[in-house]
Q: What sequence folds into this?
């Protein structure tokens, strides 16, 4: 089972898939593996919507920023944080629903991510490739319409699954010294280590795109954090019942 | 590699560990596997604090609700969402930091969860057991003090790791029909399926505790969602720079 660690280390997103379908019993296995992930307070606050309808796929691909593999992947699923399923039982037991605190949002979102990552690893172990689609949050209200999501449920991300028709390189990650700290948070040495890493990332892009942008990690993330990223999310989430009390 | 799916399905939390240490090269492997997880917008918004100091462990065990295995596990790490590391580079490139939107909180939190789950699976594949410790959010301000976390960083959860000294049962999960929906969100049949599942959960508790509380899933989650769970989180997160704009 040492190879599980090698499998994990070999992850890269796949954005081009063959037309091969995923067998029904394998898909069920992926779901079972997903559901076995840890869940905070036993909430099981995740719902998966499996989208087969080509028109829905097309609309999602478009709103996610023209990500065509949403249409072409063998499977496309949307992971939703779901407080409604459990919340229904507050009524049942004569209790007032109070599940609109920041903590509830956090717990349900983490539940979803743990479950999704289990599904991803199960899929990759079976030779499938995956790509997370955060782009569904570009227009989450439209996702709510398309998938008929009630209050208490929000779409966290999509996931494309299929047999890979490409073999991209693994993208280099930050040095361990930068990411893992001993006892306390401490930035000593990080700047120098990140400078070396920035060069690695530039090289990765130069090689991959054949003389492309060659942008460093630090510049990418500075660009990202200096932009107003999906500023509609707060209002959207409040409308779905996630009120950040 | 079919056994990866069996490994995933066999997950259960471990709360009693032997005194055996985790070898340094295995620990590094776990970290490498963790870092290989997908990261939104290449942000890599996670930092792991590895806590060895017994006094710190003791304080964390206490604030997490007297979870003694935080003290006794071979390793205890805290997963933090980290927008500071990347945010530092806004200054560097002369850009204004705007990373305090709800979306940034979401992205960093999901990054942490995906990375943690990779670490968990790597660990379990090597015969280790784990237990997530959401209880560190009982007193996140004290966690900030203990780990000297700066603004832009918050502790999402802890993780105990070690060689298992117990062999608990796998806890039953909701039926697939309840968790996986076709095309749209649809609750048809859920109530009946959950009633059957509730009985399974009652039985699980009765067996495990030798005639214990025997509480159903629906009653547990109704209790959970009718309580004000960690109502300090919003204010705490705002103080750490996560402003939910």
A:
């Amino acid at each position: 089972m040492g190879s599980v660690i090698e499998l994990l280390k070999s992850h890269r997103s796949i954005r081009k898939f063959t037309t091969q379908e995923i067998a029904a019993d394998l898909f069920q296995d992926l779901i079972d593996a997903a559901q076995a992930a840890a869940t905070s307070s036993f909430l099981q606050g995740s719902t998966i919507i499996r989208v087969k309808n080509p028109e829905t796929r097309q609309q999602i691909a478009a709103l996610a920023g023209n990500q065509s593999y949403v249409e072409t992947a063998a499977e496309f699923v949307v992971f939703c944080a779901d407080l409604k399923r459990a919340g229904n039982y507050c009524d049942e037991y004569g209790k007032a629903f109070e599940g609109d605190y920041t903590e509830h949002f956090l717990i349900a979102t983490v539940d979803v991510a743990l479950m999704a990552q289990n599904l991803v690893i199960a899929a990759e172990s079976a030779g499938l490739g995956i790509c997370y689609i955060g782009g569904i949050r570009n227009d989450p209200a439209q996702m709510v319409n398309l998938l008929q999501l009630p209050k208490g449920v929000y779409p966290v991300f999509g996931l494309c699954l299929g047999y890979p028709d490409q073999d991209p390189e693994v993208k280099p990650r930050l040095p361990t010294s930068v990411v893992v700290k001993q006892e306390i948070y401490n930035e000593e040495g990080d700047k120098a280590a990140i400078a070396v890493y920035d060069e690695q990332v530039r090289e990765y892009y130069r090689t991959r795109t054949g003389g492309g942008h060659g942008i460093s990690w630090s510049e990418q993330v500075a660009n990202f954090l200096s932009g107003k990223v999906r500023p509609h999310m707060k209002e959207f989430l409040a409308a779905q019942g996630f009120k950040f009390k």
